[in-house]
Design a protein that fits this description.
This protein is an alpha/beta fold and 295 residues long. The chain has 8 helices and 8 strands, in the order βαβααββαββαβαβαα.
Length: 295
Amino acid sequence: MALIALAADKGSPGVTTAAVALSAVWPRRVLLAETDPAGGDLVYRSAAAHGGPLNPNTGMLSIAATARRGLVPDQLWDHVQPLSGGLEVLVGLGMAEQAAGLAGLWPTLGRAFAHLADSPNAPADVIADCGRISGDTPAVELFPHAALVLLLSRTEPEAIARVRDRAAALSAKLHGGPRGAGSLATPLIGVVLIADPGDSAKLVHQVNDMLVAAQTGAHVVGTLADDPAGAEQLAGRRRGRLDKSLLIRSARKVTADLYQQYGAAWSVPAEGPHGSQGPHGSAGPHGQPAAGAGR
C-alpha cells in the first residue's frame, strides 16, 4: 500500500502546490485527494478534462454518504474527476463547515486510501493534501494508515522550529514517543523543504541535525524549489515549459529519492488508464495539469 499524506504546521508553504507537483510526476497511477478539512482549492482554480469547471459536489463531499455504509477502495473512483491534464483528483470540501459531514469517517477513508494500491481492478497510490494541521485536526486520523507523512516547511528559522516541534508531536502521537532517526516505525515521517535550490544542500544538513537532536524520528527526504513561476505554470495561469521549471525538476528528484528509499516496501507498479506511467513525460505522466498553486 502507499498512502502519502502531505501537511504543514502553519503559514503557507504550498502544500497544494507540492501535492500537485508530486502527483504530476509520480511514477505510477496516482489519485490526488484534497483532504484538508478547511476546504480544497482545486475546484476554484482548475479545469476539468472536458474543459468546463470541476463539480464541487463530486469528491470528498459526495464520498461521505458512501463511507457511512462502508467503503471499498474501488468505490473511491466513483467520486474522482480528471483535470484537464489527466491528473485524477478527489475534489476537496468547499468550506470548513462541510467537514462535519465527515466526522468519524476519517479512519474509514484512511483505510480505503491505503488499500487502493492493492485493488485488483484499478490500483493506484494516493497522495493526500491535508493542508495545515494541528493537534485536533481530523485529517490527522488519516496518518496511522499512511506509509509516509511528509511535512512541508519553508526555511525561515521559525518555520523550521515549528516543523521540528510538529514532527516530534506526531512521532509521540503515532509511535508512542520519541524515536531515533533510524526508526522504521510506520508511518515514516519526512520533511520536505521549500527552498532556493542554491541553498538546499546546506539547509538539508542543518535541518536534519536539528531533527535528530530533538529525537523527532523524522528526517529531510528532499527539497522542492521555491519557484513562483513554476507554480503559476502548474496552475495553468502562466505559459511556459512546465517540465523545464525548477519546481517540476525538483519534484522529480524528490519522487525518485522516495522510491529509491521506500519503493520496495510499496506495491508493484501499476498501469494507469492511459498505459504505463513514468516520471519522464513533458511534466510527468499527466502532462501539464491545471491545478491550484496552493496554500
